[in-house]
Structures are given as C-alpha cells and as structure tokens.
Amino acid sequence: MTVATSAHFFWITSRAAGIAALVLSSFGVCIGLLMGGKLVRKRMSDLRVVHEALSLATLVAIAVHGLALLGDSFMKPSLADVTIPFVSGYKTFWTTTGIVAGWALVFLGLSYYARRWIGQRRWRAMHRFTVLAWGLGVIHSLGEGTDSGTAWFLAMIAIVVVPALVLFAARTGMAPSLRRRSPGSTADAGAPVSARTSGVGGRLTGLEG
Amino acid sequence: MNQIPQPNQAAAERIAARRSRINRIRSRIAAGAVAVFIAAFAGLLVQLNSGQDPVLSKKSSAATTSSTAKPAASTPVTSTPATSTAPSQPAPVATHQS
Fold first, then answer.
1. How distant, in Å, are the alpha carbons of A47, A105, A179, B64 from that of A148?
2. How distant is the Cα of B50 from the closest Cα of chain A, in angstroms?
3. Is the overall model pTM greater than 0.80, yes or no?
4. I want to staple A58 with a disulfide (CB 3.0 to 4.6 A). Which of A24, A52, A112, A206 is the partner?
C-alpha cells in the first residue's frame, strides 16, 4: 500500500486537486450567477466574500493540479508541458483545453484586483467570460480526466455542474426581460447596442458578473 | 443602566462585526476546500489500493491476461520433457496419407 501510494503520490495529488478545482469553481460560478442575476437579494456582500474565497481556492487547486504533475514519475512532463498550450504530446487537445481554461480562470479571476486600471465596465464585460473558461475546464475533465469514465465522477459532475448550467440558462434567458423592465438599472445600459446583442459576448453582456 | 453607543463607536462595532464575519466565511471556505481535496485524495487512494483505479486496473487486467496466455502457449514446451521420458510410447506422427 505504501509503495503504491508513494509511486503515485503526485499523480493522485494532481487528480484530487483537479476534482477540488472542479467542485470549487462550479460552486463559485453558481454563486456568481446568483449574484449577477439578482436571484438572491439578501446578504449580497456575504455572497461576494464567498464568491471571492471560492475563486481563490479554485486558483490554488488549479495550481496544485498542474504543478503536482511535474513530480509524476510516469509522465515526467516539463513545466512547458503543463503551462503552454499545444506543447504536451499527451492528449494534446484535451491538455491544451485544460491549460487554456486554467490560464483564463487565473487572468479573469485575478483581474478583480485590477479593476481600477481595467475599468469597472470593461472588467464586468471580461468577467462574464469566466463561465466559458469554467466550461472549458469541465470539458477538459471529461475528455482527459482519469476518472471521467467512472460512475462516481459522472455523478459528481452532474451534482456540481448541472446547477451551474441551469443557473446560466436561467440567467441568459432572464436577462432580456430584466433589461426591458428596468433599462437604466443594468450595468451595461450605456454599452453600445451592437455589443449587447451580437454573438456570445452580446448574449453574455446582459449578465452582470 | 444601558449606555447609548456613540455613532462612531456603533459604526466601529459594525465594521468589526463585519470583518469578523468575513474572516469566518473565508476560513470556512478554506477549510471546505481542504476537506474536498482530502476527501478526493482519500477516495482515489482507496480506489487505487482496492485495485479499481480506472487506468491501473486496465493495465493489471491486461498483464493478467497476457500472463495467463503465456503458460498456455508454452504448454507443449513444458510437457516435452515429460513425453520424452516415456520412450515406450512414441509420439504419433502425422503423415497426411490417411
């Protein structure tokens, strides 16, 4: 048992951190969608604290997920393999998906602390794409995850991902009606019409992050 | 006799209460994150040691299959000495004549 554990310690650590990142990020996305969609009106400041703490915990888990692989004696990936897209030869597409999702979550998450320089409105517009980065992470876990074929993993994915997807669908469906009801109250009221209505970005612009 | 708090004092108390609530929330989230990680790690460890790891169990079953296949293939080799020790019963020879 000790031999098996020590031989696969870094691999198991990476997998556990990936699972933790998936769970934490899903909860974080759920809370972000609840806040932005004004689905919860009480204790907004507490929710913001929870959202921030979950996001930071997710970033730590993602860092552990990637860096723990460096110690894996079977794959022996280099730092470039786990940090630069298209470098790793192991399941290149899925690995790249994970790397892109990870970096996107890092930049979109940490951009919160640079709002003063980015600008509040621009930051809000950027922050909406966090859902897409999270979605990429989910796709990465399903495509490359060692446990993606197991029943418990699929059940866990369903438990943590489906609520976030439902909230996302509810929010994207709800956004136009909210805008119609109170056109002046939305944060993007001053944004150009083309930006509000075109493509994925336009669809997401109706949401507050 | 109850003292009526000064406005500044009341605000300071409210800020302190809020700060402690924020710290409590942060520490709970951190503890929860560590708990999720430990639970996942322990679960994966149990799965690995019970031989049900999705990747390693495939490898071990493949190794088992190949190791069980090898003796079957080498049966004639191992049985050769046994037949050679029985000179009174020569091995049948196929002649394609019958």
1. 31, 21, 39, 24
2. 10
3. no
4. A24
